[in-house]
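User: Fold both of these, please.

Assistant: Here is the first one.
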Amino acid sequence: MSKLTVEGYGTFEVPADKRLVLAIEQDAKVDIMHACGGNARCTTCRVEFIAGEPSAMTVAEKQVLTAKGLSGVRLSCQMLCDHDMAVRAISRLEGTGRPDPGRTPEPVITPPPQWV
């Protein structure tokens, strides 16, 4: 089990290797967006790391962040909870006017991860 701290929500024990986007939504009960269903396309699952940022990144995450000119954020759909981390959920359903945060992401990282 890893510990996930979500700013403003607390610290939660998360099953090993659970996708971060799912841990934030299901364990921390944060209304984090995932409009593309967790497929590294929309960047709505963005988080800022406070502590424990993983050094590895998927090729898909790197490509979409670069294409959208984003820095200082990571895509929670492209990470696993394999160590303790603390994040700030910066893209939430509240205030968007959307009916839901998007299709629930699969339990495994999609597309299949290639790490850089």
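And the second sequence with its predicted structure:
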Amino acid sequence: MISRRQTLGHAAAVVAMTAAGPVFAAPARPLIVNALGGLSDPNLDLGEKNPLRPAGKPFSVDDRVIADARAAGLDAVNVTLGYVSGPDDPHTATIAALDQWDALVLANPHDLTKILRPADFARARAEGKIGLVYGFQNSAQVGVHLERVDEYAARGVRVIQITYNDRNMMGGGSVAAESEPLTPLGHALIEKLNAAKIMVDLSHSGRQTCLDAIAASRAPISINHTGCRALTDLPRNKTDDELRGVARGGGFVGVYFMPFLTADGHPHASDAADHIVHALKVCGEDHVGIGTDGDPTGIDDLDGYKAALAKEIAQRVAAGVSAKGERPDTYPFVVELRGPGQYRTIVELLRARGVKARVINKVLGSNFVDFSRRVWA
């Protein structure tokens, strides 16, 4: 029901980091918005949050998750909810997930708040809450029923990704042929999303579908979690043409902390910094951010996690949604960028590469907020 992001982890040592206090001290703490991430504790039931699991299984945000998010300095995150892949009915699964997340926000009024408009980012920060941007990583739950876009928007959904890894009715994903175009229904969906002021996210899309969508959209579009194909030639990463097209239209590109950053699937924190720097060169300083595809809380039992990961990869391969570059021996995260210290680490690496402080602050969060103004306002 949810993407593999929610099985990400970090070692038990980060618990001590969390207890030590926030990574960024106020009032100098920058605004941090994760353009695609999570807010969960995968230690509660390892492997539970598999995209192929039955819909409706309950989940929760516990004290550790909130403490880790606050220690990281996280102000808001675009969370994936609803159908991503698997046998469930996409619309039914998505409505169930919306009900769950709404109940979760209602049950945690001092810690969580929904982000519905650009001003809500500042409000969440001022109130000391973690803002949640509701987003989808597929549009299969819309299908031919374009009127559902308005239904989802009314429920607070503000981001819809056109495809997941496989091909759907809208176009090709990253495991489909790169020449797969945006379909006529995909064109109609983008027109509907523009009218509803919902972000068009092209993460996971194939190359031609991505380029077609950039050309089709009247509003700026985003690729909320990706890497740079010029540095690592894997389908989940985007070419300079795709990145440049997003930026030219006033859009946003978020760089992830995932195995696709290097060809061997074992990237270091320095590789993530290199991809961010490359994206800045291609897109400009106003159009790049971070979409980690990870949680502030991670897995403590890495040995146990390896067994769960091998099972999950096998399921994803069987379902035809496994991206090139993900294997049982590759963690779906950058080992050095786990836990609440991940943003501090990336800031230090960007500084070492000569990125100015004001640009780093844009990357950490303000660029995504500015992008939301261009789409939602």
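The CA atoms of residues 116 and 156 lie 6 Å apart.
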